[in-house]
Amino acid sequence: MFLNFKVFFFLSIGLLFYNCKSTATIAEIENLQKVVDEKNFEITANSATPIAFANTRGLENLLPPGSNLANINLNNIQNYIKVKNDSLQIALPYYGELQIATAYNDNAGINFEGFPTTSKFEFNKNKSAYEIDYVVQLKNETLKIFITLFANKRCSFSINSSNRTSITYDGSWKKLDN
Fold first, then answer.
1. What tens digit of pLDDT does each residue of 41-73 get?
2. What is the Cα–Cα distance from 95 to 69, expressed in whole angstroms?
3. What is the C-alpha separation between 85 and 154, in angstroms, rounded?
4. Residue 44: which of 76, 87, 84, 85 has the closest Cα?
5. Which pLDDT belongs to residue 19?
6. Distances (CA, A) of 145 to 134, 156, 163, 168
7. Is 7 helix (H, G, I), strand (E, B) or coil?
8. What is the set of domains in the chain, with CATH numbers?
């Protein structure tokens, strides 16, 4: 009985390590580099991780199904960051706190269409990923956007605002159709 358990245990561990894919293939990396070089891709967030504060307690029932204050499910909420050449289109839901009161804004999300103030694209060989930084100027605030695109078509990005608390998103990316 003990021998069967040991065999099963080591076989399970071996299969686990065999199925774990920690490195990207050359084809995946080349595809990522091509898409980023063309600057023609779309990012969609699957979840948002805002900074939760004590005064947000009691709002859990207002969140989408399968969500809590620490991790918000965005699967049924349309959202994107589209990169087309040097322009950006951003439509993201925002969950967090306004830190500095500004003029009334009837749109609580993060929306932008135009050209970023600055942009930086850098390939990280250790992660086999592209790290992209944008600075975007909205009417009453400045956004710093830090994006990491992985070769397996997953991504994570965070947005730091001059007026709101920071928020992090996880999702996926794809090449835009022309």
1. 999 999 999 886 666 666 676 777 777 777 888
2. 9
3. 21
4. 76
5. 45
6. 5, 11, 14, 10
7. helix
8. 26-175 (2.40.128.410)
